[in-house]
Design a protein that fits this description.
Oligomer: single chain
Radius of gyration: 50 Å
Number of strands: 0
Distance between the termini: 114 Å
Helix content: 55-70%
Shape: elongated
Largest sheet: none
Order of helices and strands: HHHHHHH
Length: 168
């Protein structure tokens, strides 16, 4: 592109050219095909850019910004504790608590009584009853007796008693 075209291109495209400068510009375009092609392409691009401009009445209607702010505030993150104040959730929470209470109450009510304490029960032995002897008749019982005796082996009260052990 030649110097006269570069100097007056913006004025030509925006239609602000003076009469002498405009005449010199048009005269050069008539002589130079290269400059005429480039100016034609630039003029077409300028028209496309004007088409992309929004229309003058594209402003939002009255109250638009207020409605947007109201919607943003309505969708803002709520507190974790605010969930408990919602009526639907509070009703469900109350029903679930009632169901859990009924379930636990029935479990306690139908529970078996505590087992009685027998002589070979480890609780009885640790409670201070006399230590049973391992007779050798029942290996499972003998194992329980030996383990219970080992668990209560040294109580710190005098000499250590001998532990009865089966012959197995």
């Amino acid at each position: 592109m030649h110097q006269p075209i570069e100097d007056g291109l913006e004025d030509f495209l925006t239609a602000r050219a003076g009469t002498e400068q405009y005449k010199a510009f048009v005269a050069h375009l008539a002589v130079c095909a290269e400059c005429a092609t480039e100016v034609g392409l630039m003029k077409q691009q300028a028209e496309w850019m004007h088409e992309l401009r929004p229309p003058a009445d594209a402003e939002p209607s009255a109250g638009f910004y207020a409605r947007v702010m109201d919607r943003i505030e309505a969708q803002s993150a709520k507190s974790f504790w605010g969930v408990f104040l919602e009526p639907v959730f509070a009703k469900r929470l109350a029903l679930a608590s009632l169901a859990l209470f009924v379930l636990l109450s029935s479990a306690v009510w139908q529970a078996e009584p505590a087992p009685e304490l027998y002589g070979d029960n480890p609780v009885t032995v640790l409670a201070g009853e006399a230590m049973p002897a391992a007779t050798g008749a029942d290996p499972g019982r003998d194992r329980t007796v030996v383990l219970t005796n080992l668990a209560s082996y040294n109580t710190g009260n005098g000499p250590v008693p001998l532990l009865p052990v089966s012959s197995d």
